[in-house]
Amino acid sequence: MSESFLNVRNLSVTFPTASGTFAAVDDISFTLKRGEILALVGESGSGKSMTSLAIMRLLPDAARFHGTISIDGTAIAGLDRRHMEDVRGARIGMIFQEPMTSLNPVLKIGRQMTEGLIRHQRMPRHQARIAAIAALDDVGIPDPKSLLDQYPHHLSGGMRQRVMIAAALTLKPGVLIADEPTTALDVTVQAQVLDLLVDLKTRHGSGVLLITHDIGVVAETADRVAVMRGGRIVETGTVGDILTNPQHDYTKGLIASHLTVERAMRQRHAEGRRGRTS
After folding, report:
1. CATH of the domain at 150
2. Long-range contacts of 150-154 (CB under 8 A, 24+ apart)
3. For the chain, how many structural domains are there in total?
4. Quick check: 204 and 180 in contact, CB under 8 A?
5. d(C-alpha 248, C-alpha 130), whole Å
6. Where does the ABC transporter domain start and stop, copy by copy (predicted)?
């Protein structure tokens, strides 16, 4: 399972402004293989999420797109709307960073969890509900059967995020884009979600594009890393090479910042334990 599955070549996303053209993504190229997790890492505003929206063909109307994108040899950049809708969900799925803007507020969770299975896999509705319940159970949602009859506004932010993850995983897409998938989740659920992503790539051979600013998440789950800054990819490599021998100053700064925060949290935890025992 080493062949290239997602190919992005010379991708640029620009926006017209009063002072000229702004490049949110500036001529980037990368590949994602089957059975691999590629982490796209960088600070807020580096172009990570805009890259994912370009791949999904969900860019704002004002955006201008340049470059080529192919999935398993099929070029998708030029597909019309109807054919692109066939690709989304079944061949390429996405876990969005903010689930409240992605879930339909007027539809029950059950409808939103099952519509992809019914459309793409021609699954009977009752069977789709069973699959949805199993997926919700996999992401740690208690009493998933009753959750199907609730609306998104009935759920907490963390619960909505888990619903989005479960919905994406039900179709087992060849490519899954996970945009900050552990945002708003507690530590236990974070670990559970990351395990699910690893399981998706291991058991189903999916390629996962993991978008994150969290170096700890990268170290725990990724196989390779592409570091973005100012719309460009400044460094790529295996997770081991990037974390132990970074070449670019920006990458070194990201890792140093993470280690500083990690040390501070360990120290605070240790001081709290000493305070409780004194």
Report:
1. 3.40.50.300
2. 150/108, 150/109, 151/105, 151/106, 151/107, 151/108, 151/109, 152/99, 152/100, 152/103, 152/104, 152/105, 152/109, 153/105
3. 1
4. no
5. 48
6. 8-255
- Please identify which residue in the block is written with the tokens 């992605």: 102
* Residue 275, in any domain of the structure: no
Which pairing describes strands 175-179 and 207-212: parallel, antiparallel, or unpaired? parallel
Res 269: pLDDT: 55
Q: Which residues of the chain are under the pLDDT cut of 70?
A: 1-4, 99-101, 184, 260-278
In a domain, 119, yes or no: yes
* Within a domain: 139: yes
Predicted confidence (pLDDT) per residue in 10-40, tens digit? 999 999 999 999 999 999 999 999 999 999 9
pLDDT at 1 (0 to 100): 39
Structure tokens at 87: 């690709």
d(CA 276, CA 278): 6
pTM: 0.85
Domain that holds residue 195: 4-234
